[in-house]
Design goal:
The protein is an alpha+beta fold. It has one domain: Gamma-glutamyltranspeptidase, small (S) subunit (Glutamine Phosphoribosylpyrophosphate, subunit 1, domain 1). Helices cover 33% and strands 17% of the residues. The structure holds 6-diazenyl-5-OXO-L-norleucine. 6-diazenyl-5-OXO-L-norleucine binds next to loops.
Length: 601
């Protein structure tokens, strides 16, 4: 049982009084309530693996198996991450794919440094800040085959940004991988060609997006059988995707960006009056970036810089949280959850105002991640009252989507890779390019597509995130690593969930560092989410008991339930070298570790 003390050194007012008032209620809570995945027959231990020869954690067992197979063949963290990425592109088409993009954070053990590969989608050259809106400022009416495409930034050909995944994976592998690319892609080709059983969550997503997947002939061909959406248990075979993957295995990214595949992609884009042309594909560049980093209670936190907002805000929020000794608070108590919410609210207000592609706009990364800024901003937190978001900014609805995916890998040499990849919303634009099997993203929706509007995740962004040719839309994807004092990676993690990526990663880190939870508990514990706008504290079932709930409401928080916050895939390495891999119980992931490792000559 936890005991509550006066905790705050810097803000004695914040917890000094409140902790005493709330102590009795909080102390009666069980330490944490595990999240239960209602759709799974698995038990918590199925989501945990341990070993010393490397670890792969991905959101589908087949992707994990492919990564582990690479480690067993003597491959390194990049071989495993790339193999798992290609497989996840086949088995989670609702989340990611060759028509999408992502970020990869790599820790090089020898050189003791981290590198970031940004292969996110970019706006086509013909794109403009007003491309989605008509003269009255409303979304344009786009028709396809006689049907109105209601949300042209989320569905259809105009929503597609220039895909970066293939170039990103191939180039990263060429520079850092050890195994032949053909070996690394082989598992994905085999699964695409032979097929795999449709699982419940995939069947549900196909059903959810049925209207749009049915509209586009390329998608209808892949996700429907005899005119009906594929159901759980049926086999999803992707012949065209297998062929596209074979061309990548044989020619690297050339065919995809300049050859036959590129011509098929362009033909599809033209069919729906999209903007991407051959120059866009040929000109796509992977960008290497400098990671953003900070210190949290002596641990070094390294994460994704802009054009993701994730790393900056994770560090900004940790800096605010660091000002109080959270270990003395209850992880499910109102005192902690109030402070956590206020910290999230302030960081997401900054996101809306300050964030965009750093190659186009000025993003004050150093200011936002400085300890001094965190002190200044958190000084406005009232220990007894929720700050209305309207006193910091506008209102907007929020959406949910089970898309995007994260893979964490560590090899036995201590190299590590964390990569988050996406087609954005579920099945991206819902357009599969005919003859390629490639699901095209709808990443244009991550830009500010309409002044004052919000995107599919209810996120409001400002003019810094306006559309411009070749610009990268703002992201929340946050592949993250925590390093110990010797510079060794002690924790790798990431998540899908749009804005909830940032808060899921944050809470997992705090659970490990402050609440000293084992990784399995840290990942499975219930989570909350606040993103400034809408001014609502979203909470998972069991995130707090009735007493804490009442106290949060009394403080002025508007509470609203949410099915889940993120889907964390994480690895923790103990000082002894033992690695723990944990997949989030919220989804269908699985950790895996090599049984026998072959030495590579
Ligand atoms: O880059 C981003 O932040 C979004 N496109 C990610 C979308 C996402 O995570 C959807 N998953 N639930």
């Amino acid at each position: 049982m936890r005991i509550f003390f006066k905790t705050s050194k810097i803000f004695p007012l914040l917890f000094g009084v409140t902790a005493c008032v709330t102590a009795a209620g909080d102390a009666n809570l069980p330490l944490f309530k595990s999240y239960s995945n209602k759709n799974s027959q698995r038990v918590a231990s199925d989501y945990h693996a341990q070993g010393t020869d490397g670890m792969v954690v991905a959101a589908h067992p087949l992707a994990t198996a492919a990564g582990v197979a690479m480690l067993e063949k003597g491959g390194n963290a990049i071989d495993a991450a790339v193999a798992a990425s290609f497989v996840i592109s086949v088995v989670r088409p609702q989340s990611t794919g060759l028509g999408g993009g992502g970020f990869l954070l790599y820790h090089d053990k020898e050189q003791k440094r981290q590198r970031i590969f940004d292969f996110r989608e970019r706006a086509p050259i013909k794109a403009s800040s007003s491309m989605f809106i008509d003269e009255q400022g409303n979304y344009k009416k786009i028709m396809f085959n006689g049907q109105l495409v209601k949300d042209p930034a989320i569905v259809g050909h105009l929503s597609v940004a220039v895909p970066g995944l293939v170039k990103g994976l191939v180039e990263t592998h060429r520079e850092l991988g050890k195994l032949d690319l053909r070996i690394v892609i082989a598992p994905a080709i085999e699964i695409a060609a032979k097929g795999f059983p449709v699982y419940l969550a995939l069947a549900r997503e196909i059903k959810d997006r049925e209207q749009w997947l049915r509209l586009y002939p390329g998608s209808r061909k892949v996700f429907f059988l005899d005119g009906k959406p594929l159901e759980a248990g049926q086999t999803l075979v992707q012949d065209d995707l297998a062929k596209t993957l074979q061309l990548i295995a044989a020619h690297g990214h050339r065919d995809f960006y300049e050859g036959d595949t590129s011509r098929k992609l362009i033909a599809e884009i033209k069919r729906g009056n999209g903007l991407i042309d051959a120059t866009d594909l040929r000109g796509y560049r992977v960008i290497e970036r400098v990671p953003v980093s900070g210190y949290y209670r002596g641990h070094r936190v390294v994460s994704m810089p802009p054009p993701s907002s994730g790393g900056v805000h994770i560090i900004e929020m940790l800096n605010m949280l660091e000002q109080n000794d959270l270990s003395k608070l209850h992880p499910r108590g109102a005192t902690y959850l109030h402070y956590l919410t206020e910290v999230m609210r302030r960081a997401f207000a900054d996101r809306a105002k300050e964030m965009g592609d750093p190659d186009f706009v000025d993003v004050p990364v150093h200011r936002l991640t400085s300890k001094a800024y965190a002190q200044k901003v958190s000084a406005s937190i009232d220990p007894e009252r929720a700050t209305p978001s309207s006193s910091i900014g506008l209102s907007a609805p929020t959406g949910e989507s089970p898309s995007t995916t994260h893979i964490s890998v560590m090899d036995r040499w201590g190299n590590a890779a964390a990569t988050t990849q996406t087609v954005n919303y579920s099945f991206g634009s819902c357009v599969v390019a005919e003859g390629t099997g490639v699901v095209l993203n709808d990443e244009m929706d991550d830009f500010t597509t309409k002044p004052g509007g919000s995107n599919a995740f209810g996120l409001v962004t400002g003019t810094k995130n306006n559309i411009a040719p070749k610009k990268t839309p703002l992201s929340s994807m946050s592949p993250t690593m925590v390093l110990n004092k010797e510079g060794r990676v002690e924790l790798i993690l990431g998540s899908p969930g749009g804005p909830r990526i940032i808060t899921a990663v944050l809470q997992a880190i705090v659970n490990v560092i402050d609440f000293k939870m084992e990784l399995l508990d840290a990942v499975h514990a219930t989570r909350v989410h606040h993103q400034w706008m809408p001014d609502t504290l979203r909470f998972e079932d069991g995130a707090f008991d009735n007493d804490s709930k009442k106290r949060l409401v009394d403080m002025g928080h508007k509470l609203s339930p949410i099915e889940s916050v993120g889907d964390v895939q994480a690895i923790q390495r103990e000082q002894s070298g033992l690695m723990h891999g944990v997949s989030d119980v919220r989804s269908d992931g699985k950790p895996g570790t090599p049984a026998h490792v072959k030495e590579l000559k």
